[in-house]
């Protein structure tokens, strides 16, 4: 299995997704937009994983590579590749499909619960109700046309979507472990202005090993669902 990874910030890599890919003998190619804007040919890969980042998908003037990234994501989807987007990655998928990405009513940072969205479609990934996950975002996406809405939270109604059996976009983070989260807290500490849905540094750093293990278990379930079909 050949996987291309879009990485937009040095601290926002695959995280614990790497463990799953290694266990399944996947070949991983990182494309780091902060180093190189020349995107590899998506036709050479079986899947695309798009990670998070601090920029907005609407900042094409500041980050011209966004335009090419969006075109590549659309090509991957049209080619029935496996596509997973995390946070900014999900927003890029939504944009590639013509959906609007915009500021959310609330900033959402820290450990907050999501819940699944009821749907008549029986072939979508099901999250537990509720599931505590890590959030770090101030924007949101509209659910793309023909996508199933699969997750929501109090602060942000559109937390996840799925298209067919190949494409999943998640606004939240299941892939972070304790060390990678601490690195994000250190790098973006200025964003931790406590608010209704923004936890302070102490609260974020107090997330327990058990809570990380639950997130990891659900990440593994999701990767098994998406990539093993």
Kindly describe this structure.
This protein has 229 residues and is α/β, with parallel strands linked by helices. The protein has a single domain (2-227), classed as Class I glutamine amidotransferase (GATase) domain (Rossmann fold), CATH 3.40.50. Helices cover 28% and strands 27% of the residues. It is built from 6 helices and 9 strands, in the order E-H-E-E-H-E-H-E-E-E-E-E-H-H-H. It has helices at residues 17-23, 65-78, 88-96, 178-187, 201-205, 209-227; strands at residues 2-7, 27-32, 47-50, 82-86, 101-116, 131-141, 148-152, 160-163, 167-170. It has a 9-stranded mixed beta sheet with strand order 2-1-3-4-9-8-7-5-6, with helices on both faces. Helix 2 (65-78) crosses helix 3. It is globular and about 45 Å long.
Summarize the structure.
This protein has helices at 17-23, 65-78, 88-96, 178-187, 201-205, 209-227, and strands at residues 2-7, 27-32, 47-50, 82-86, 101-116, 131-141, 148-152, 160-163, 167-170. It has 229 residues and is α/β, with parallel strands linked by helices.
The biggest beta sheet reads:
9 strands, mixed
Outline: globular
Strand neighbour order, sheet with most strands? 2-1-3-4-9-8-7-5-6
**CATH third-level topology:** Rossmann fold
Helix count, DSSP H or I runs of 4 or more residues = 6
Under CATH at level 1, the class stands as: Alpha Beta
- Helix content range of the residues, please? 25-40%
Kindly report the average pLDDT value.
96
Strand content: 25-35%
For the record, what is the CATH homologous superfamily label?
Class I glutamine amidotransferase (GATase) domain
- Structural category: alpha/beta
Number of domains: 1
Question: How many DSSP-defined strands?
Answer: 9
Instruction: Enumerate the spans where pLDDT stays under 50 for 5 or more consecutive residues.
Output: none
Terminal Cα span: 12 Å
């Amino acid at each position: 299995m050949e996987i291309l990874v879009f990485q937009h910030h040095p601290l926002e890599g695959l995280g614990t997704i790497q463990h799953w890919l290694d266990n399944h003998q996947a070949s991983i190619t990182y494309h780091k937009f902060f180093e190189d804007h020349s995107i590899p040919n998506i036709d050479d890969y079986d899947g695309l994983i798009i990670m998070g980042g601090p920029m907005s998908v609407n900042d094409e003037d500041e980050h011209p590579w966004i335009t090419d990234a969006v075109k590549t994501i659309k090509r991957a989807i049209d080619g029935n590749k496996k596509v997973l987007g995390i946070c900014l990655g999900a927003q890029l998928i939504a944009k590639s499909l013509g959906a609007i990405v915009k500021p959310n009513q609330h900033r959402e940072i820290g450990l907050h619960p999501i819940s699944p969205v009821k749907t008549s479609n029986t072939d979508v990934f099901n999250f537990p109700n509720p599931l505590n996950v890590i959030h770090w975002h101030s924007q949101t996406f509209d659910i793309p046309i023909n996508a199933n809405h699969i997750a929501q939270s109090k602060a942000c109604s559109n937390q996840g979507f799925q298209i067919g059996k190949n494409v999943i976009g998640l606004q939240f983070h299941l892939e972070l472990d304790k060390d990678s989260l601490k690195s994000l807290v250190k790098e973006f500490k200025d964003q931790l202005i406590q608010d209704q849905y923004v936890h302070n540094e102490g609260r974020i750093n107090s997330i327990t090993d058990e809570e990380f293990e639950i997130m990891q278990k659900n990440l593994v379930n999701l990767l098994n669902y998406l990539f093993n079909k």
